[in-house]
Amino acid sequence: MHIVGLAAVIAPYLVQWRLRQGFDVRVMLAGAIVQLVAGVGLVLVRGANERDITLGMVAVKMSITVLIAAAVAVVIALQRSGRMDVAPWFHTAGVAAIANVLIAVVWA
What whole-number distance in Å separates Cα of residue 97 and Cα of residue 103? Predict the structure, then answer.
């Protein structure tokens, strides 16, 4: 589920990154929520099995995932209010998701 959530955030970003407006971020929001829930689940399962948990990494990755969800929520809110200058928020979410993957790979 965690990987599916990640794909649901990064794939729409990569498909739409060259657009200037009219971003469709509904899938990205769902993906960010799935990643948060699955990430918490992974930490709980790992802790229940008495395995070491790197709390620093968990905190960094959760913070980035919350940033992604917040940026996508801002895009949705601004689009609903009629504003179309949401590209910085859209790119924040996409780049943060890619950074989150890089952190997971390098830190592991």
Answer: 10
